[in-house]
Design goal:
Elements lengths: L7 H7 L8 H8 L4 H4 L3 H13 L4 H26 L4 H5 L8 H31 L10
């Protein structure tokens, strides 16, 4: 089980003394290494086991997260590279090199701006679908 507490003792120590914990939650944290047992602890245990099953770390999930991170970095750096490739930015990166010739700079900048445009369209579609589903943006805007 992936919880912020390594064991039941840590959970109990951070739990308020004014609140009476439910036994199923305490047992769930105690048996967190065995989600099949936690599922038998009533409604609380079933919810904890369901959460664990949905958020279990797998190689596929890790590969997906790495891919999303790499794509995010590419999407952020693409417009910056698209603008930087035109001017003397190449000379700042490699001082011994001069500005890139137009035959090299224009196609690279075109691909970078295409990536930036597709990213904006994709984010616009995600935002529009969220608005249609009734969700609000993180700033409270519709």
């Amino acid at each position: 089980m992936s919880t912020p507490y390594p064991d039941a003792r840590t959970w109990a120590q951070e739990h308020s003394l004014a609140d009476v914990p439910r036994l199923a939650r305490l047992e769930g944290f105690a048996f967190q290494a065995h989600p099949e047992i936690v599922a038998s602890f009533g409604a609380d245990g079933a919810a904890m086991a369901r959460f664990t099953a949905e958020h279990r770390r797998t190689p596929e999930r890790t590969a997906k997260n790495v891919l999303v991170a790499v794509l995010g970095i590419v999407m952020v750096l693409a417009p910056i590279l698209g603008v930087a490739i035109y001017g003397t930015a190449a000379a700042y990166i490699a001082p011994s090199a001069g500005p890139l010739p137009a035959q090299v700079a224009v196609p690279i900048a075109g691909v970078c701006f295409l990536i930036a445009a597709l990213t904006q369209v994709a984010l616009w579609i995600v935002w529009l679908r969220g608005v249609r589903a009734g969700r609000r943006c993180c700033w409270g805007w519709p």
